[in-house]
Each structure stands twice: as C-alpha cells, then as structure tokens.
Specification:
With 141 residues, the chain is mostly beta strands. Helix content is 8%, strand content 64%. The radius of gyration is 15 Å and the shape is flat. 21% of the residues are buried. The model has no long low-confidence stretch (mean pLDDT 92).
Amino acid sequence: MQTFLSTPTSLYVLKKGEELMAQLEVVARERSLSSAWVNIIGGASAVTLGYYNPEAREYQWTDFNEPLEILGLSGNLAIVDGKPMWHIHGTFGRADSSVLGGHVRSCTIGLTGEIALTPIDAKLTRTYDGETGLNLLTEAK
C-alpha cells in the first residue's frame, strides 16, 4: 500500500491482490483511529456482498469472483464492543455494465484501489439496537 497525503485526508493506493478490509484495519491501527470516513474507487477481482434481511435479522452474503469496477465504496469507522470496526457499502460494475451493490464483507483488489480516508474528531460508536438487530451509529459522550 502506498500513501500520498497524511493530513487531514489521507490518500492510499492498494495493489492487486490486497484485501481491502484487512488493509483498512492496518491503517486504523497504525494511525490509532477510532472514527473516520472513507471513499474508495478502483477495481476488484472478488467481493463478498451482503443484504441485511430485517425479518430474519441477519445478513445474506453472496460471493462474486469476477473482475469488477469499484464504482464507489463509502463508509465509516466506529467503535463496536471496544474495537474499531469498518462499515462499508459499495457499488460494483460488471463487464456488461450491470451493477452489484451491498454491504461489503470482503473485497480483493483487482488492478488498483484508491482510498481517501478522513479522520473524524467525534468518537463514533455503534450500539446494539433491539428493534433492528443492528449495531447503529452513535456518538460517544
């Protein structure tokens, strides 16, 4: 991974074969981040996307192992149960110009991944919400 800027927004470039979520965890740990916002474009060779089924109160995961354009990924970093956790959603383009999207569980970079990461001063946390079954974003007091 290559770094281009350091503050306030950092730009990173991931190489072919790197796993996006793992690299975001490395950045969060190395920079001691607890809250941030991220935007990503580039290409992927494999992704696992999820849809949260509110009736079943669980994610339904689907693997896609094909070349994809990362049309746009965005999300945030917040603390869940004392640990930093990335929450990323994304859209991906196929060769036929159809689009896939959902909650990103994993993403293997295809050709390149260009990341803009902005730390957030507020201490974001996620707290379990019994009504939805999700950890929803809140600000720590």
